[in-house]
Amino acid sequence: MSFQKPSHTFTKIHLKALRTNSLHILFSLSFTVFINTLSFGQVDLPKDGETIRPIQETEQPEIKQNDSTTVSVNELLGVKKETDSVLSDSIKPKPLLSSTVSYKAKDYMAYKKKESKMYLYNEAQVLYDDMDISAGIIIIDYTKDLVYAKGITDSLGEYTQKPIFKQGANVIEPDSIVFNSKTRKGLIYNSQTAQEQGVLITETTKRVNDSVYYLKNAKFTTSDNYDDPEYYFLIRTGKLVPSKKVITGPTNLFIYDVPTPIGLPFAYFPLSKKRTAGVLFPSFGEDGNRGYFLQNGGYYFPINDNVDLAVLGDYYTNGSYGLRLESKYAKRYKHSGNLAFRYENLITSELGFPDYAKSTIYNLQWSHSQDSKANPSSTFSASVNLGSSSYYQQSINQINLPNTQNNTLSSSISYSKTFEGEPQANISLTATHTQNTQTESISMTLPTFQGSLARIYPFAGKDGVKSGIIQNINLQYSVRAENSITTTDSLFFKKEMFDDAKLGVRHSIPLSTNFKIFDYFSVSASTNFEETWVVKTVDKYYDTANEEIITEDVNGFDAFRTYNFSTSIGTTLYGLFNLDKEGEGKKLQAIRHVIRPSLSYNINPAFDNYYDDFEIIDADGTTKSEFTRFENSLFGTPNNTFSSSIGIGVSNNFEAKVKDSDSTKVEPKKIILLNSLNFSTSYNVAGDSLKWSPVKISGGTQIFDNKMSINFGATLDPYALNTNNTRINTFNIDNGGSLFRLTSASLNLSYSLSSKDGSSDNKNDAIDNRLLSGGRADDLFGVSQDFAAQQGTLGGEEKEERESDEFYNNKIPWSLRFAYAVNYANSTRQDEISSHSLMFSGDIELSPKWSIGGSSSYDFKNNGFGLTQLRFERDLLSWRMNFTWVPFGTYNSWNFFIGIKSSILKDLKYEQRLKADEGL
């Protein structure tokens, strides 16, 4: 394709129709060059230093109409010269053109016959198909088949309106462009091309076709400052495939235009928008017990658009190794989740040495969540964290540091479904797992089935209104079937773990009603019938030969049935203490007290028919021992003691009305003094001794604008102890003591304070890992030291703009978090603080780019610090630098990291780690 020299002079654009179709065809063909913009080959080019001068008003060419009428440029553009002039092809284009060509310019569009050139001046633009070219000047040379696009110089001498070329998602912003319409090749000068998270700043670019560009003296960077990037890779020669890759010759790193020795004879930069398979480069270091190591290296597999897989490994020169499989999956409007399996084979010391040891540990994590839009009537979710009890304590991968403080591993997999109807039915299947990492005990339910029917009101009116004792009578039905397993870490996933499994089914039918008396008292009454099924019972007898009690398991179906009755009455009392009766404008104006007393009565019959006895013959004679064949039942045993008890409870709430500090507000502000203050006890009417149960006290509140949470509790026993520290049927006050004996108490405080209102949500993969591992979302247990894994997330967070000095932050942002807990025990006169600890964490941003932080804990009972971590972070614009230090303890170590934030260059990093007791 080439431009043909027109045989007719240019006619007036506005309002008049063209005399011949040939002129329309001429303009249609003249702009087909923009189908393949940015192309240029080795054809006639402007000489070095040659510039294209913009058309001045004094150089207005003459435009002839039918070779007889002379028309000026102003006449051609019409009277309203300031308005845009737009020309669109109106005739049916030839097959070469697949779309309409549109172009415009603010000042003028003119064709100079002597030069055979078309000029578009000031805010010129050409649109064709998915292509858009904007520039200060666009010139078409029909003789040389060239197209020029460049900016213009304004009255201040600044170069403005640089060309902007858009085609699809690709955007190029050069100083100037030259095209050849025959070869469909071109040269681009001083261009800036955004590619994924990076940008190419190129001195000269040769466009071969739509998908291949050759580069000369190009800079590749992820910096936001294109004019003066703080770092870049200088590409002397290279090849660009837009949105796919950059392949270069000799390349080295420049930092603030200073060359560094970091370079390669060739380089490859992936630019694909899609996930692609590739190597995950490891981090390296040294461990005193296992030698030099490589950690977190491997390969990434994008299986499809919904699932990926990362295979990672660790290797130590003494033979230790680790393997991790991590997969994430997601399907829009369906579900999402991740799956990870970790295995480590650890060798300590060398074979033949006395401290030589070898062990294997593993961990499995799975998280799955279903989109609420997927199926409203059924849901499936999973949160699994199981494995070796010592995994987090023994693992030497730095990502597990915060999880070393977790004492419990837990898992849950559940499915639930709702069946609409009258009544509505619900079923659920749940598998759970709880593992204590200290005792290595494991409890599991495989599985638990629960089914229920919605509450039914058999005596309700036809209009659905329920009032009074009869119409409020309702009943439900629920069933729970469970297979419970209790085992240890050593028997986990072995057949022995099922030997002591317990299977049971419980059916429950509660019947209840509620009503009001005297308008102020709410009364409720209920009875509950339960039937329990078991598949294994026990039988006991006394072996006279060996003088021991023999317990035998009896396999077979059996069941027991129980019922109980309860009723309660309660009301609500309000008290208001006005402290500003005279309207003097006191700060504290009133205190509001809400009291909710309640009185309950419970009856639990004795089911003696499920109990048997056997004779024991000893030296003192024959005695009888009582037992029930259901004593190992999953849901407990039937009650064999009649109980008739009265429960007493009082709950309190205190609020204050204070004068608002904002004088424009008329209404006082409400402040919660005590969110709750509860007292409860019970009296067993049918008991023969120790009829009163201990008084339990609990309460909580929030202060400092709800930033500090306070919870407390205590237990008061009215009975005394004998010399053996056993409760006796004598009140403590009658035994020479106080009215109540304090047996236990607890206090918990948590406080979060920040210089900024609100809190930022910094969720990332490291926090998700801590939560799934049973840890905390905050950093009171420390943060992961695997900074390379957080390169594309945590390091890329935007910080709020502040008024501050470059080296000193006038408004220093800071945050402080702490959790305090103390427990007192005195049930057997031990009179001791059973636990007393403080955890704290804080961060300070010394400058807009510098921040420091730390976390630690102190055990006041054992007088020692827990896991302590100090953190330092430096924001280096496109880079980030981190240093963490655990100064003492089992996990003492330090870690230094510096790397590029962008995920496409995340493997360009330096990381060094060393255990403190091995290298300091």
Descriptive labels:
17-stranded antiparallel β-sheet; 55 strands; 920 residues; disordered C terminus; 54% strand; elongated; mainly beta
Give structural notes.
The chain is 4% helix and 54% strand. The strands form six sheets. It has a 30-stranded antiparallel β-sheet that branches. The chain has a 17-stranded antiparallel β-sheet that branches. The chain has a two-stranded antiparallel sheet with strand order 1-2. The protein is elongated and about 130 Å long. The chain is built from six helices and 55 strands. A hairpin with a 6-residue loop joins β48 (814-825) and β49 (832-844). Among the domains are: 1-156, no CATH class; 274-406, no CATH class; 755-919, no CATH class. With 920 residues, it is mostly beta strands.
Secondary-structure blueprint of this entry?
Elements: H1 21-30, E1 63-65, E2 69-71, H2 73-77, E3 85-88, E4 101-105, E5 108-112, E6 117-128, E7 131-141, E8 146-150, E9 152-153, E10 159-160, E11 164-167, E12 170-172, E13 176-180, E14 185-195, E15 198-209, E16 212-221, E17 231-241, E18 245-248, E19 251-255, E20 258-264, E21 267-270, E22 278-280, E23 283-287, E24 291-301, E25 309-316, E26 321-331, E27 335-348, E28 357-370, E29 378-387, H3 391-394, E30 408-419, E31 425-436, E32 441-456, H4 468-471, E33 474-488, E34 502-517, E35 521-543, E36 548-570, E37 573-578, E38 588-604, E39 611-618, E40 621-628, E41 643-658, E42 669-684, E43 695-703, E44 708-717, E45 719-721, E46 727-731, E47 741-754, H5 765-772, E48 814-825, E49 832-844, E50 850-859, E51 864-865, E52 869-876, E53 879-886, E54 893-900, E55 909-915, H6 916-919
Antiparallel strand pairs: 1-2, 3-4, 4-6, 5-6, 6-7, 7-8, 7-11, 8-13, 9-10, 11-12, 13-14, 14-15, 15-16, 16-17, 17-18, 17-19, 18-21, 19-20, 22-24, 23-24, 24-25, 25-26, 26-27, 27-28, 28-29, 29-30, 30-31, 31-32, 32-33, 33-34, 34-35, 35-36, 36-38, 37-38, 38-41, 39-40, 41-42, 42-43, 43-44, 44-47, ...
